[in-house]
């Protein structure tokens, strides 16, 4: 059986308290495919307000990042255990904006992932290549290197990890990967999972696609056999997010 379709909305550093509330009321008022798991990631400052606004809804929340230490002198950071304490069940880790702009290494992402899982959080683990790497035919090698780094710290249980393949060149550019380009890397990730994860886990792993996903391109992507959901940036701030959640209907 195919794993449950998963759609995440990464709001990044966008919006106000009131625009966030409005967006949530659009989502809670909409008819969403009950077979799709929906997780939204508002800015950290907005998480608790969003939690209140989502009471009684099946939509879950994610932090956009977290630090692996439980507490201490780390000004400006939020820890995985603080997310857990606040009943935020998910966290996005390894987003390319974190890797590029905030210099998070593969090893940092691996450490954060291990810490998040120990705090019982579920993780949306982002991987993906730059344009330069794609042009050098390195896409799959880069993604495998990023996954191997996490595997070295999380050798056993990947059941709480969703892998988001987000080619950097497709993020926020309007240049969506073609369904064939995305499928090729997703299939390589499943091959990796089949070879490297403990038996039986590859079948349940969700590999989702992110990078300029929109209402107009989501159905074609969702029809590919190895694409089991999306991580949406820009379009998750608009009512069209509902159409993306409903891509399989
Ligand atoms: O980075 C993304 C989601 O995490 C994708 O962003 P866009 O959908 O705006 O391209």
UniProtKB/TrEMBL annotation:
Record keywords: Isomerase included? yes
**Gene Ontology MF terms:** triose-phosphate isomerase activity
Q: Which EC number(s) does the record attach to this protein?
A: 5.3.1.1
* SUPFAM superfamilies in alphabetical order: Triosephosphate isomerase (TIM) (SSF51351)
Q: List cellular component terms (GO).
A: cytosol
| Catalytic activity reported | D-glyceraldehyde 3-phosphate = dihydroxyacetone phosphate
Which GO annotations describe the biological process of this protein?
Answer: gluconeogenesis; glyceraldehyde-3-phosphate biosynthetic process; glycerol catabolic process; glycolytic process
Record keyword Lipoprotein present: no
The metabolic or biological pathway listed in the UniProt record of this protein is: Carbohydrate degradation; glycolysis; D-glyceraldehyde 3-phosphate from glycerone phosphate: step 1/1; Carbohydrate biosynthesis; gluconeogenesis
InterPro entries, alphabetized: Aldolase_TIM, TIM_sf, TrioseP_Isoase_bac/euk, Triosephosphate_isomerase, Triosephosphate_isomerase_AS
- List keywords of the entry alphabetically: Gluconeogenesis, Glycolysis, Isomerase
UniProt xrefs under Pfam families? TIM (PF00121)
Which PANTHER family does the record match to this protein? TRIOSEPHOSPHATE ISOMERASE (PTHR21139:SF41)
* Family designation: Belongs to the triosephosphate isomerase family.
Spell out the NCBIfam families in the cross-references: tim (TIGR00419)
Q: How does it assemble?
A: Homodimer.
Name the UniProt record assigns to this protein: Triosephosphate isomerase
């Amino acid at each position: 059986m195919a794993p449950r379709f998963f759609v995440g909305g990464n709001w990044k550093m966008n919006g106000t308290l009131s625009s966030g509330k409005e967006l949530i009321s659009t989502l809670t008022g909409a008819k969403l495919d009950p077979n799709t798991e929906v997780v939204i990631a508002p800015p950290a400052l907005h998480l608790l307000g969003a939690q209140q606004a989502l009471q009684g809804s099946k939509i879950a929340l994610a932090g956009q990042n977290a630090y692996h230490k439980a507490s201490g002198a780390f000004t400006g950071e939020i820890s995985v255990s603080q997310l857990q304490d606040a009943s935020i069940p998910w966290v996005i880790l390894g987003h390319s904006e974190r890797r590029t702009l905030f210099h998070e290494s593969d090893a940092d992402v691996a450490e954060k992932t291990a810490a998040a899982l120990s705090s019982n959080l579920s993780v949306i683990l982002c991987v993906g290549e730059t344009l330069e790497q794609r042009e050098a035919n390195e896409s799959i090698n880069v993604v495998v290197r990023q996954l191997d780094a996490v595997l070295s710290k999380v050798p056993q249980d990947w059941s709480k990890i969703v892998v988001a393949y987000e080619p950097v060149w497709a993020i926020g550019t309007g240049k969506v990967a073609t369904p064939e380009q995305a499928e090729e890397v997703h299939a390589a990730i499943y091959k990796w999972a089949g070879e490297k994860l403990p038996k039986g886990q590859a079948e349940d792993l969700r590999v989702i696609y992110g990078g300029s996903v929109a209402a107009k391109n989501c159905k074609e992507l969702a029809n590919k056999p190895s694409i089991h959901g999306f991580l949406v940036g820009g379009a998750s701030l608009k009512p069209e997010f509902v159409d993306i959640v409903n891509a399989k209907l």
